Amino acid sequence: KEITVEYMQVIKDMYNGVKTRVRILGGNTNDFLIGLHQGSILTPFLFTIAMEELTREIQDEIPLYMLLTDDIVLIDETRDGVNTKLERWRDTLEAKGFRLSRSKTEYLHCNFSGSEGVANGVTMEGVVIPRVEMFKYLDSIIHENGKIDEDIN
C-alpha cells in the first residue's frame, strides 16, 4: 500500500493554494483558502489511506475489521474481544487527534454459534454502547439473526 512520492506531490499540487468563496445574501464573501474539497472523489480515498496508516500498528494480522472512510467495523468472537479492540482503536485514534463519536457508535451481536446467553455490555470508556438488531454497512444490511431478507427486499 505504498504511495509513491510522485503521487503524493500530484495530490498536494492539486490542493495547493485553492481558494473559494461563498455566495451569501447581497453578494459573495471574500476568497479564502480551503484544504481538501469535501465532496471530491478523492476525499474518501485519501481519508481511507490516512486512516490505514494511522492505525497500522493496531491492525490485526488477519484483519477482523472493516474500514471505509470514517466507518469502522470491529469483529470478534467475544464481547471482551470487542471491548478490547474498541478501546485500542479509540486510544490510538484519539492520541492522533481524532474522536470516536459516542452518539454514533453502536454494536451488533450475531450469535452464529447458537450458544446460550446474551452479549451485553460493550462499552467505550465505561459507557455502555447501544445494541442494535441490524445495521447498514456499504448498502448491505447485517442482521443479528444472520438473515439477509431485509437486504434482498
From TrEMBL:
Pfam families reported for this sequence: RVT_1
Q: Say which domain of life the source belongs to.
A: Eukaryota
PROSITE patterns hit by this protein: RT_POL
Which residue numbers delimit the Reverse transcriptase domain? 1-129
Q: Which PANTHER family match?
A: ENDONUCLEASE-REVERSE TRANSCRIPTASE, REVERSE TRANSCRIPTASE DOMAIN-CONTAINING PROTEIN
Which named protein is this? Reverse transcriptase domain-containing protein
